[in-house]
Amino acid sequence: TQHGIMITFNSTGNNISYNKIYGNLGSGILIDGSLGDSDISGNNIFANEIYNHTSSGLGAAAAIELFSVNSSNNIFNNTVLQNNTYGIYLELSNYTNITNNNISGNFNAGIFLLNSYYNNFTNNTVSNNTKAAFNITNGNSHNIFSSNVANNSQYGFYFQSGNGNNLTNNDATNNTIAQYYFTTNDNATFTGINRALNSTANI
Known about the structure:
This protein is an all-beta fold. Helices cover 0% and strands 45% of the residues. An 8-stranded parallel β-sheet has the order 1-4-7-10-13-16-19-22, with no helix packed on it. The protein has an 8-stranded parallel β-sheet with strand order 2-5-8-11-14-17-20-23, with no helix packed on it. The model has no long low-confidence stretch (mean pLDDT 89).
């Protein structure tokens, strides 16, 4: 099928949990708020195992994808394993809480943000992804990254063209190019203790 599970148009308060989702042409779970004046909020995605979603021209081919969602939703306690293009992918999506997920072995990035704001990433373990654990690109602002583990990729945290993002008590180690990488002056704030160990360039 194109997507495993799809939430769209005025869907609120749904729980998607305890599923094994794999081998779809698009994304495993897609929340799409692009259809008109949609209210998509209060949805909970948790305790799912998602794998084997690779790009076929049908969207991001992520394990979990949010597109144009501007209300609070929660993604937590999921296991996102190998062979997805992205683990969790947010585009034009704000106010999402992403917590306690285990994300590894994806072809591009474990967690990818594009033009997304005011999201919270807490206690996620993101490792062994081909490019980056966290790829934050093109205009993402005011996101909070707290107590995440980002290791064994090319980059731990890769920031491109953002503003006002906050990193608190993250652990980025054993990434081959850099632990925290900024292509521009992103005006990011580091608080607490953010570890950076074992790469050519740590920050």
